[in-house]
């Protein structure tokens, strides 16, 4: 984890929120509500029903955690704190470790804390990452990848319906994204720009 990567994510989140609503900070959106609803979806992917056989879908759980990260960053940005202060907070509080054997209990603690004060609890979120073996690098790649793809879709006709979700080889854009992300160096400051250019090249092939 480094300050540069955290700053890139904060800037991407601000840019995406601004693209959707120019004055988003002044709107007071209930980001906390989006988080606890995602928690419920996440629980379904992990499995909780004792009356039927269920195996945790950790890949889907990881994707839901990345969605929650989007909303969490929005809460931190909406607080009005500077990027440097938010970055310092993330670096000090995002300690990826847990002493809880049951992931579902950690998830319930996180959801309860979110509902309790409507804030984003980095330490509790980090416990969820640890519970499914997610590293900061995986969070970063997954977050930047999804964010860049969202921008790419908007720039290529998603709003007016002209965007092609299935590309030249019949595969969805998400599949191309996963492949491209793995070929790039996520530690470089240009990671998001290189990713965007790689998507353009594939889309136009």
Query: The CATH topology of the largest domain is what?
Result: all-alpha NTP pyrophosphatase fold
Rounded to an integer, what's the Rg over CA atoms? 17 Å
Q: What percent of the residues sit in helical stretches (DSSP H or I)?
A: 55-70%
Could you give the count of β-strands? 0
- Give the overall shape, derived from the CA principal axes: globular
Ends distance: 35 Å
Q: Which sheet architecture does the biggest sheet show?
A: none
CATH-assigned homologous superfamily of the largest domain = Type II deoxyuridine triphosphatase
- Model regions low in confidence, pLDDT < 50 over at least 5 residues: none
Number of domains: 2
Helical segment count: 10
Strand content of the residues, in percent? under 5%
Q: How would you sum up this structure, described in words?
A:
68% of the residues lie in helices and 0% in strands. It has 10 helices and no strands. Helix 3 packs antiparallel against helix 4. The longest helix has 21 residues, at 58-78. The protein is globular, with a radius of gyration of 17 Å. The two termini are 35 Å apart. The model has no long low-confidence stretch (mean pLDDT 93). It comes from Cellvibrio fontiphilus. Its EC number is 3.6.1.23.
Characteristics:
single chain, 205 residues, mainly alpha, all-alpha NTP pyrophosphatase fold, 2 domains, 10 helices, 0% strand, dUTP diphosphatase, hydrolase, EC 3.6.1.23
